[in-house]
Amino acid sequence: MSGGHVDAGHMDSGHGNVSRYGAGPGHAFVMAVCFAVAAYVLSRVAAAGILAGFLLWFLGAAVLHDVVLLPLYTGLFHGLRVVVRRGRAVTAPRSAPPVRRGRRRGWCRRR
User: Fold this and answer.
1) How many structural domains compose the chain?
2) Domain that holds residue 33
3) Is 15 domain-assigned?
4) Nearest Cα to 7, choosing from 18, 87, 102?
5) Are 18 and 12 in contact (CB under 8 A)?
6) Average of pLDDT values for 29-41?
């Protein structure tokens, strides 16, 4: 890695493990278990002969959530935030301390 370039294939996960996956081995294990459970459930649904009905319900639930429920509870959340904010006094945010420019005298003098 030179010049500040980060190679995504060799990122450190924070645990000292360098892998091409990009996350730690625990995350990869949990994701593999989730996919295995989903595959098992799908195989049981297919074996029961109700795959078409299952897929219809699954897609219907996804559309209902994305088209109806998500906008509904997002709007309710934003409305609640407005109501709560009206009860408090609005104050200006604190500004950051001024940035000093130039060389600081007395800290690092060349002789």
Assistant:
1) 2
2) 9-49
3) yes
4) 18
5) yes
6) 97
Integer Rg of the chain from CA: 27
pLDDT tens, position by position, 79-110:
988 888 887 755 556 666 666 666 655 555 55
What values do phi and psi take at 18, rounded to 5?
Answer: -105, 125
Q: Given the structure tokens 């897609």, which residue do they identify?
A: 59
Tell me the one-letter amino acid at 60. G
Reference 43, options 55, 35, 51, 31; nearest CA is 51
H-run or E-run covering 58 = helix 51-64
Looking at per-residue confidence, does 68 or 103 come out higher? Answer: 68
Is residue 27, in this structure, part of any structural domain at all?
A: yes
User: Is residue 104 in some structural domain?
Assistant: no
Q: Let me know if residue 60 belongs to a domain.
A: yes
Tokens representing 19 are: 């892998």
The tokens 């081995």 sit on which residue? 25
